Amino acid sequence: MQFSDFGLDRCLMSTVEHLGFTAPTEIQQQAIPAAMQGHDLIASSKTGSGKTLAFILPAIQRLTKNRALSKKDPRVVILTPTRELAKQVFSQLRLFTANTQFKAVLILGGENFNDQVKVLEKDPHFIVATPGRLADHLSQGHFYLNGLELLILDEADRMLDLGFAKQLTQINNAADHRKRQTLLFSATLDHAQVNEFANALLKKPKRIAIGSAYTEHKDITKRFYLADNLEHKEALLQHLLTHENYQQVIIFTATRSDTERLATLLTQQQLSAVALSGELNQAQRNQIMDGFSKGHQKILVTTDLASRGLDLVNVSLVINFDMPKHTEEFIHRIGRTGRAGSQGDAIAFVGPKDWLSFKNVEGLLAQTISFEKIAGLKAKFKGLKPKKSKAKVVNTKEASIDKKTAAKAKKTTKKVFHVAQDVGDMPIIKRKKPLSAQQIENNDIDEE
Ligand code: AMP
Known about the structure:
This protein has three domains: 3-209, P-loop containing nucleotide triphosphate hydrolases (Rossmann fold, 3-Layer(aba) Sandwich), CATH 3.40.50; 222-365, P-loop containing nucleotide triphosphate hydrolases (Rossmann fold, 3-Layer(aba) Sandwich); 396-441. 41% of the residues lie in helices and 14% in strands. It has helices at 10-18, 26-36, 51-65, 83-97, 113-121, 131-139, 156-161, 165-173, 192-201, 230-243, 256-268, 282-293, 327-334, 355-365, 396-401, 403-424, 437-441, and strands spanning 41-44, 76-79, 104-107, 126-129, 150-153, 181-186, 206-209, 220-226, 248-252, 273-276, 299-302, 315-320, 344-350. The chain is elongated, with a radius of gyration of 23 Å. Bound molecules: adenosine monophosphate (AMP). Adenosine monophosphate binds next to helix 3.
């Protein structure tokens, strides 16, 4: 199949050709014709599979071919969970709208509110936004959605996991359902809240599932190393960074403070590294991502803030310095390499604190993982044995004597059961504490 088979507008085709894209990817092959026919879509596809163009192309095509319902209201709204992803979608959109009459704007949390009011007053055709800030502008009457023709939810699962259901519902309710088309993209369709949401928002949607977001990404080679402790991880890291071949690397750590500490350590070792953490303000984050994508540094150290959607074509190696808290983040993290068919390597360090997460990832990948070793840096840690429930050994008599022990045993039983469930079914991320509005607004989503 070729892009020319879609019957896209000449202007769109010339941009596709200019970008050097010859054949549409699988998600594009399925989603573009269905969206161009006007169907609502619920679609899953792997990270880096070309899903952005799968919704941008039919969106622009629709605007080119149809008369606007309103002169003032936006015609297309694209919502994404993070600012970084929104920016990336916006930059792809700009490539395709550059030679058209269509105006596109980017509305992000954490940026100047009044500037955004002015931008919205110019009646843009496209709005790319994070949901919290857009919902604020909507509440304050800075724009209306009566003329909305297309609502696109990118990474809907992530938006719902982050607690944006209220804002998404508000935005949805402000638009006329009869005339509107909705395209929902999610890393997984196996997500109760996404399905519930899709039932409420979409009209007779076509379901498109391209493989599974959780199946193995063939272009990414995965390696795992056991590690005893922090010092051991640092030694492994230094060894690998000086012995591996890579263009650029992203290193994922569990905490923000570790990003800074590790980047400083690597810089002291004469390696070119920079840290991206949620503590930075938006301008600083933009500057760092900009510099890294231009190749100013070889190594980016970050938390899960950069794990989703970002398209950094020169990243050929991803290192999980710490395993992620949420199993599915592993797939998003390693999806930062092996983009658009290129080869990538993913490495993970597994220490005692990472063991539970590692076992969940092993279950997710549905394979038994063996560990690599580096001479002189072998770990003493060999993995944890599954904990046996102590509940069995607590008989009634003992329990009545020692209530504390019994309570502890009960807790252990619960924990073991929980792990088994996580391995079997894909866990739906449930946060212990809901994120505060401030955290969401600041996109401080990498840590609980
Ligand atoms: P996405 O999954 O939308 O983030 O896209 C991942 C990368 O694939 C981006 O760099 C796109 O520019 C690129 N891409 C999108 N469509 C195609 C295509 N048909 N052929 C080659 N690369 C593509």
